[in-house]
Amino acid sequence: MFRPKLSLRRPLAVLAAAVIGSTGAAVVAATPASAHHTTITGTVDCDRLTGERVITWTVVNSERGKTATITGVTADPATPVLLVAEGTDATAELKGTPIPKAGQVQGVQRVPGDTQRATLTVEAAWFQKGDSQRKKPPTSKDHKTIELGADGTCAPAPKCVDASDAKYSHTFDGPKGTATVKLAGDLPLCGEEKQYFTLVSYFAPRPQFATPQYVYGTPDSDFLGGTQTEIELKVDVPDCHTQVDLIWGGVDEVIDPLVENGPRYGSKKLGDRGAPGNRSTGPQGWYNGGKKNCTTPAATFASACDGTVTVSLSNDGSISKYPVEFEVRGENGFSEKVTVEPGKANNETVVPAEHAGAIEVLVDGEVIDNGSYEWERPEDCPLPTITADATCETFALTASNPEGAQPVKVDFTYGDKTESRTVKPGSSESVTFPAGDDEAALVALPELDLELEVVYAPEGCGGGGGGEEPPGLPVTGVAAGGIAAGAIVLLAVGAVLFVMARRRRIHFTA
Fold first, then answer.
1. What residue spans carry the region label Disordered (predicted)?
2. What is the pLDDT of residues 402-440, one digit of tens each?
3. Cβ neighbours, 10 Å, residue 274
């Protein structure tokens, strides 16, 4: 039986040829993929209107002699990638877009604002004219991953500002009592939110901070909100020591009064270093000053006939908010301190006559307006009276001082003799001169700037007037009674004449 010989040479040769052919096909097929490719880059921006991240993808054709066509687009996140064409809106899909020879195309993708990473995969093919359907064109599949930002967020730009986050700016003029407050930036407060600010002025006991303080007038308060983004505030400022504050909040935040160990505005004052006052930029929103006390100290004086002076003290003016300690000083070391509460008047201090020559009323060591005075004799005070009793041998003069008057000095002068007496209230002093040739005596009251001339004219002396009576004898009987009656008349007439004798000399006959 014939058995053909089997040889492995031919099958191995066929197998080798097949392997080589297969490998060659693979190389041919892979070569275009490695030679033809796209390059992908991406840039990121944030759309503040929508709060989205905007990625601009750029796809570059590596081939200088062939046009590529994008045949597939895969994005992660899976949102559309739209073609960017000059002069048109990005509405067309990037898929299907041809890429010029050695050129590029761009696509825009929008992703949520909190996206941290994005990847674009692009498939492309390089078709040639005349290619049959059986011949596959060169293709590539490339991808690019980009990081969108360390914080991973993109928030939309706000259309308003929340009152709790808003910033402000302000101006302030404490002495004039004016201020303005303005919302910072271009955005209004959100919704119906309002932020109030208030300007308030106080009476103060000192030009530096001190208590107690009392609100003066009406605080001015207004708000920022809605279309109102700036306000002006103005208050009256007292014409005395004051404090003016620009505070955060409405009138319900006003403290009245400010007292020792009581609540304070603290960082509510605009311009303060702490919150909320530091949310407004500008000068410090508080002022202390004023040049005079917030009191109305006043004094009136009333002289009495006995030389005393009654000093009436009051503290009841329109700005009297604090007690006033008065000091009443007089001559010869007199001093008396009196405290008068606000709104009180007619607190009386009597300065004795011996101290009433020069009186001063002081507050805080300074004499107040119209606070100096000297005792003045009231016009309705009864005047001293002068009477005379003249005989042939003597000329007697008597000065009488009424009750309730001051002691008065009287100078009696007759001839070349002068006698002085001080007459106490309610008493009399007399001086008797020997009868002489002078026709009148002079009675002077120097403290009252008064003089009175009394004529010496006794009756029945010298033998000519008495007829049968011996000259030089005392007048008795009816004549003596007539003289006594004349003295009484003279007392009355003297009083009347004396009243009329101020600053001039009056003559009358004794």
1. 129-149, 265-289
2. 988 889 999 999 999 999 999 999 999 999 999 998 999
3. 10
